[in-house]
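TA notes. Do not distribute before section.
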Amino acid sequence: MNKLKIIIFFIIFTILHSKGYAINIEINSEKNKVNVGETFNLNINIEGDLSEDNKLKKISGIENFNIISKSQSQQSSSKLVIINGKQKRKSKNIYSIMYSLQAIKEGVFTIGPIEINNSGTKISSLPLKIEVFGEKNIEEKINIKTEKNKDDFIYKQKKIIKNIIIVSFIIALLIGIYFYFKNKGKINKIKSLLKKEEKKEVIKNPNPKKTNYPKIEEKDFIYKLEKIFKNKLENKYKIKNVKNKTYIDILSEIENIDSHNKEKIETLSDLFNKAKYSKIRVNKDKLLKLVKEIK
C-alpha cells in the first residue's frame, strides 16, 4: 500500500513539473486607450524552450502603429525536477520583446493573437485591443484648459479696470473742484491744452495697418500664419531675429510674461510643430483664432 502511494506521488510530481515548462505566450500593454500621436509600450513574453524555426517572426496588427523602437532580451534559469524517479536539471527560457509604438490613426485595433508552431502544436496568445481616439479629444483638453485660463484672466482684468476707474474718477473729481474754485479761466485753458495733446497723440500714433491673415484653404497657410505669429512676438516682446529662433529660445528671452500668455504661446508653438513635423492633423480654425488673440 505504501509503495503504491509513493508511485502515485512520483507520477503526480513528475506531471506537475513537466507542465511547468510548457510554452506560454503573453502580450500586454501599459495603455489600452490612447490618443492619436501618443506613444505606449507593447510587451511580449514567451516562456519555454523555442527552436530557431519557432522564434517570433511577425505580429499581426502592429502595422497599424508607428514603431518608434524595439528591444529584446532573453533570460534563462534552471532547477532540479524529478522525472521517472530520477533528479534532473531542467532549464527554462523567457524571451521578452518590447515595442515602443505611436498611434497614427483613429479606431479600434487588434494586435495578435501571436501564434507559434512548436513541434506540430500551435500555441497562441490572447489578442490585445487598443482603442485610439482622434484629434478632437486632444483639442478638447486644450480648449478646456485655454478657456479656464481665459476666464481667470478676464476676471482679473475686469477687477483691475474697475479699481482704476474708481480711483481715476475720485482724482478727476478732486482736481475739478480745486481748479473750479481757484480759477475758472484756467480750466478752459487746460481743456484746450488737453485737446491739443490728444491731437498730437493721434498724429504720433496713427492706427496700425490691419494684419492680412492667410485663408485656411491656401497651400502655405501654416507657413504664412507662423510668420505672422513670430512677427507679433517680435513686436510685442522686442525680440531680435525671431524668425531664426526656436520657440524654446523665444520663451527664454521674454521677460515678465504672465502665465496666461506664456501658456498660449506654448500651445501655439506645439500646434505649429505638429502641423509641420508630424502626420497629425491640426485644426486650422483653432490655430488661426489663437494667433489672432495675440495682440
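Switch to the second chain here.
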Amino acid sequence: MRRTDNRWRIGLSLSLMFCLAQILRAQPVSLPPLSLTSDYLVEQQSSPSTLQLSYERRYFWANNVLALREGNRKTLPPYQVTTSQPFLSSDKFLRWQVRYRRWGIEFAEGTLSLLEGNRDAAQLWLDAKAGSTNSQRIYFPFATEQKGHWRWFGLSHFIPFGSRGTEGKFVIGFRYLLCDRFRDGWISGTYQNGRLLGELEFVSSRGIGFNAPSGKGFALDVASNFRQGKWCAFLAVEGLVGEVRWKRLRKVSAFVDTNAFAQDPDGFIHSLPALVGREEYPEVKKPVDKQWLLGLSYSHSRWQWVVARDERVGKGNWHLSTMWSLRADQKLYLDLQMPIWVVTLGYSGRNFELLLAVSHPDPSKALVLGIQAKLTAR
C-alpha cells in the first residue's frame, strides 16, 4: 500500500512539474488595455437608458530609464541606469462603442509594444548612444520584446444586483481577437570590445509573405462593484480567460556573433556578423495576459476617495485617487500612481471626457506621458 502511495505521489509531482513547465513556456500575449483604471472609477459600470454612441482615442508612452524626449536623439550624454528592471512600452488605441440599456457592442483597434530587460541591456544601449562603451567592462544583456497590432469585436452585458441597502453592478464581456504584425522574442549574451556573442529566439508574422495568417482568438472580461452606504468595492479583470492562435508563424532560434570571421575564395579573412541557427514555421498558441484592478472607495458629500491596486502589461501600481462631482454628470479626477509616480488629471462630462497623465511637471522631462479623449453622442 505504501509503494502505491509513493508511486501516486511521485506521479502527481511529475505531472505538476510538467504543467508548470508548460505554463512557463507558454508566455502570454499582452493586449492594449480595454479600459484604464480611471475609466472604471469615473464610469462605475453605468448602463445608459438611451442609445449611446462613443468614440475614444488613447496614446500612452512609458519607461523608467530616461525622458521620452531624449530617446529620439541620435546621440546622448552619459547616463547611468538606476533601475534593475528597465522597460519601455507604448500603447495606441481607438474604439467605437454602442451602448443601450444593459448591452454594449464595440470595435477597437490598437498597437502595443513592450520592451523589457536587465540593467546591463539598458546600460549597453545608453553607452552605445553616448559613444562611451567601456572596453574594460563585460556586459551581460538580456532583453525581451513583444509587439502586435490588435483588432477586436466585443459584446458586453450589464447585470445589476442588490438587496437590503446594498447594490452592485456586474459586467461580463466577450471579445473576438485578431492580431497582425506580431513579434515576440528574447536575446541574451555577452558584450565586450564591440563584440556581442549570445543567442536569440523569436516568433514573427513577418517573413512569411503577403499571405501571413492573422492570429485569431478570444478574451473574456469581467468587472463588478459592490456598494453599501458610502463605501464601494470594485474589481475588474481583462482577459480572465483567453487565447490567441496562429496557424503559422516564423520561428528563429540562433546563435549570434557580431564579430565572427570568414575566409573568401581568394584567401582573405573578413570580420562579419554571423547568425547561425534554425528556422521553422510552426503553429503557435498563446494565452492572453490577465490585467486586473482591485479597489475601495469612500464617498462624502461631492467627494469620492479611492485606493486601488492594478496590474497592466506586467507592471503593478498603487493608485490614490479623488473625484469631485461638479454636477450629476460632471466630474473632476485626480490620480497618483506609485511607484512610477505618475499624476493623472481628468474631466468627465455628459458628452466629453479627457485624461492627461504625466510623470513630471515639465513634459520634456517626463518618463511617462499619456492622453485619452472620448466623445459621446446620445
